[in-house]
Design goal:
The structure holds 2 protein chains of 2 kinds. By secondary structure, chain A is an alpha/beta fold. Chain A contains 8 helices and 16 strands. Chain A is elongated, with a radius of gyration of 23 Å. Classes of the chains: A alpha/beta, B alpha/beta. At the A-B interface, helix 3, helix 4, strand 5, strand 7 and strand 8 of A face helix 3, helix 4, strand 8, strand 9 and strand 10 of B.
């Protein structure tokens, strides 16, 4: 039993996993394969080969028509067996987080979700993930014969390799009929604000007095060519901004070139979402606020004085705001 | 409708200090509590019971402090509790925790629905609900932000990155919930006083037919190599004069090359 199997419901993510998987496969001398599940997934075989897979295991079944973790885990376990894989890589999307532990349990295997790094150290796969509410980074290795690792989405970019040939293996799946009915699927409003991919991210916290004062924060973001994000209080308690703009442990993770945190104390539940920013700026009237400890630059002052002045000073700012 | 709620006792994360020299977290002596998502799962169970009748049983594994911690769950409205505090259970990985909870659920026996938080507030790995569902061979729905119990079914709204998915699953099922589901009640004093009289069962490995080698650290499939605060290499330049600070900040950001020209 030796092989790496990649699965993700998102093609671009699967190709990113293959890109890192092929380096691991070469170092560990294991074959690299991909599982393609469900209607139409077989179309991804060619791209998978171009990204390093030598085999694509293709399976479909009526039980896979609606996502249910039990059926998908059963399908993957059958492919793991067929492929003789011992390392299974998937992405920590919401689907992936629901699926990976269930697959691991089927395989009596250890599992790491939300891995922020993946590397081979002295022959062992070592992962890192945030622990203790984001206070620490836990470096872990899985000791069971099978290892299931769900890495943060978009951790790895997809890059085609030099090979482009592979073998398609049709797998006949044996799955119990689905007990989950999809009643409705409502797309969320297309995020006008994408905090995850912002180059400049201005976040606002509990210190903002009025909802109408958000325009000042938006003006600052506009002057910087950036977008506005927020802490949980602003989106989930006050409902002044959308949940899609909430940055932190249970929200979005961002790594902008410039982050400015305004009236944010710096609780780890928020800052875990921006720790990888290139430059961190904090504006807070409390000089003891913990955010100054993780900032490159800080200004101690009231946001209602500091932010308008800052907009004035900026090359793209307007003096009349 | 009999509901089992599985909860995890965690340390108060806001009180964790980090040793400056070793970057190690200091956990000794910290207060323990239940995480917010766990309380949302409990609150929802109690609301369903209040509407439809039945019983809510809270199950939790952890240190001996659970004897006190569990009182909060009973005050919020669980009818009884099962706590798993045996020393042999310490150091479990998520598979060990799920096995233990599955055994406890089987011993409780009469249930229609199992509710949990989507992830514990400390490690948020989200592994226990899917593993528990697999061990009990039940359907699961995670990331549930709205739910409604129908005849022998649950209708749940699953919160995905780009969509909301309304699904119906047959009962019994394992449902794991997010913080958007509800706002857990603050129990009144009368409920807190009454909580002390509700039954709390303490079960050990023997009660659950588990052997020591299938539990705790001995059975863990995860080896933690280190668990330290991340290295932070920030400049920490703080301007205490706001007016001057703004000018200095803009200069600094220009030097850093992070301003649009």
């Amino acid at each position: 039993m030796s092989g790496i199997l990649v699965y993700s419901e998102l093609e671009s993510t699967a190709l990113g996993l293959l890109t890192v998987g092929r380096e691991l496969a070469a170092e560990m001398d294991k074959p690299l394969a991909i599982a393609l599940l469900g209607e139409g997934a077989a179309d991804q075989a060619e791209a998978s080969f171009a990204h390093g897979a030598s085999r694509a295991y293709v399976g479909n079944d009526p039980a896979l028509a609606v996502f249910q973790a039990g059926a998908y885990a059963a399908a993957l376990a059958q492919i793991v067996d067929r492929a003789q894989a011992d390392i299974i890589l998937t992405a920590s999307t919401r689907r992936g987080r629901e699926l990976a532990p269930r697959l691991a349990q089927k395989l009596s295997a250890g599992c790491v979700t939300d891995a922020t790094s993946l590397s081979l150290q002295e022959g062992r796969l070592v992962t890192e993930r945030r622990a203790l509410g984001g206070n620490t980074v836990s470096r872990e290795t899985i000791t069971s014969p099978h290892q299931v690792i769900a890495v943060m989405p978009r951790l790895f970019d997809a890059q085609p390799g030099s090979n482009s040939v592979g073998e398609v293996v049709q797998v006949t799946l044996e799955l119990a009929p689905s007990t989950t009915n999809l009643v409705e699927r409502r797309l969320k409003e297309a995020g006008s604000v994408n905090v995850e991919e912002a180059e400049v991210l201005v976040c606002i916290g509990r210190g903002l007095s009025e909802e109408t004062d958000l325009s000042m924060i938006q003006n600052l973001a506009a002057a910087l060519g950036g977008v506005v994000g927020c802490t949980r209080a602003i989106s989930h308690e006050y409902h002044w901004l959308s949940e899609e703009q909430m940055v932190g442990l249970s929200g979005k993770i961002s790594s902008p070139n410039l982050y400015i945190g305004i009236a944010i104390s710096g609780q780890i539940q928020h800052t875990v979402g921006i720790l990888d920013s290139n430059v961190i700026v904090a504006i807070n009237k409390d000089k003891n606020a913990p955010i100054f400890k993780i900032a490159d630059y800080g200004i101690v002052g009231d946001l209602y004085q500091v932010v308008p002045r800052l907009i004035e000073q900026l090359p793209g700012g307007k003096a009349d705001v | 409708m009999n509901i089992i709620v599985c909860m995890k006792q965690i340390v108060d994360l806001e009180q964790i200090r980090i040793k400056a020299d070793s970057r190690q977290p200091v956990l000794d002596g910290l207060p323990v509590l239940f995480g917010d998502f766990d309380k949302c799962a409990l609150e929802e169970s109690v609301r369903i019971k209040e509407k439809q009748g039945g019983k809510v049983t809270a199950v939790a594994a952890g240190s001996a402090k659970l004897k006190d911690t569990i009182k909060e769950a009973l005050a919020i409205g669980a009818d009884e509790a099962v706590i798993l505090t045996d020393a042999a259970l310490q150091g479990s990985d998520t598979m060990g925790s799920a096995r233990l909870l599955a055994k406890a659920v089987e011993k409780i026996g009469d249930y229609d629905l199992i509710l949990l938080g989507d992830g514990s507030a400390d490690n948020y790995s989200g592994q226990v609900p899917p593993r528990l569902a697999e061990l009990l061979n039940l359907p699961q729905v995670a990331f549930v932000r709205e739910m409604e119990v129908l005849d022998n079914k649950v209708r749940a709204v699953r919160d995905l990155e780009d969509a909301l998915e309304v699904v119906e699953v047959d009962l019994p099922a394992v449902i794991s919930v997010t913080g958007e589901l509800n706002t857990p009640r603050l129990p009144p004093l009368s409920a807190i006083l009454k909580a002390g009289r509700k039954p709390v069962h303490t079960w050990g490995p023997d009660d659950l037919g588990l052997t020591a080698d299938s539990l705790g650290e001995a059975a863990s499939t995860i080896e933690v190599l280190s668990n330290l605060a991340p290295l932070q290499d920030r400049k920490e330049i703080v301007f205490e004069d706001a007016e001057e600070g703004v000018v200095e900040l803009v200069r600094a950001l220009q030097r850093e090359g992070v301003l649009e020209q």
